[in-house]
Design a protein that fits this description.
232 residues; 9 helices; single chain; 6 strands; Uracil-DNA Glycosylase, subunit E
């Protein structure tokens, strides 16, 4: 039943045409392509979430990268942010390998599901509030289907806000009681789910030292501890 629900969400995501600006941008990127990827046939469509249907860790990113997931068809696959993400997931036992380069590269996730606030690559990596609201239904449906999630790792302030809205905690909690975004910030909500926030592993953060490997690994180490504690 879980797998069926998630498969249905995936089909609806891929077929989505709610945001003409984003669809036009994704298609144009796929048509022009980056010189390094001239031989690729780009995915060029909205990108669904993926992973273990019985995930205990849910990772929420911002949106597909123009020449990453928009090229490969899988979240965080084929770009530098994915290099950081899958290295950490492998290090802490959530993935069978430390790299993700293509849909057929053999990657498998264990106890982990990866999704995003927006499913199309946006110009300048900036989806509009309206576009994010149109996409929220898909995250809501994933949250509802992934009933064993005990830890949510939000990568960036937009992902943090998107999950709070999709999980209904934004409505359920008064403004002063809502979890605040900050790297390493942690809050266990009344239903027992722990929300951990992290800076996004974008080059803007990793190349400037705003996010270091030590900082990055610390949030995954903590997520691993909470997942394991809750499994006992």
């Amino acid at each position: 039943m879980i797998r069926t629900s998630l498969d249905r969400v995936a089909r609806d995501v891929v077929a989505c045409a709610r945001c003409p600006r984003l669809r036009t941008h994704c298609a144009e990127v796929a048509r022009v392509r980056k010189p390094a990827f001239r031989e690729w046939t780009y995915w060029g469509r909205p990108v669904p979430g993926f992973g273990d249907p019985r995930a205990r860790l849910l990772i929420v990113g911002l949106a597909p990268a123009a020449h990453g997931a928009n090229r490969t068809g899988r979240m965080f696959t084929g770009d530098s942010s994915g290099d950081w993400l899958y290295d950490a997931l492998h290090r802490f036992g959530f993935a069978n390998q430390a790299q993700s380069t293509a849909l057929d590269d053999g990657l498998r996730l264990t106890e982990c599901w990866i999704t995003a606030a927006a499913r199309c690559a946006p110009p300048d990596n900036k989806p509009t509030p309206v576009e994010l609201s149109r996409c929220r239904e898909y995250l809501e449906r994933e949250v509802a289907a992934l009933r064993e999630v005990r830890v949510v790792l939000a990568l960036g302030a937009i992902a943090h806000a998107a999950w709070l809205a999709a999980s209904e905690w934004k409505e359920r909690l008064p403004p002063r009681q809502r979890p605040k975004f900050g790297h390493g910030a942690e809050r266990t909500l009344p239903d027992g789910v722990t929300l951990i926030s992290s800076y996004h592993p974008s080059r803007q953060n990793t190349n400037t030292g705003r996010l270091t490997r030590t900082m990055w690994h610390s949030v995954f180490r903590r997520a691993r501890v909470v997942v394991d504690q809750d499994s006992r």
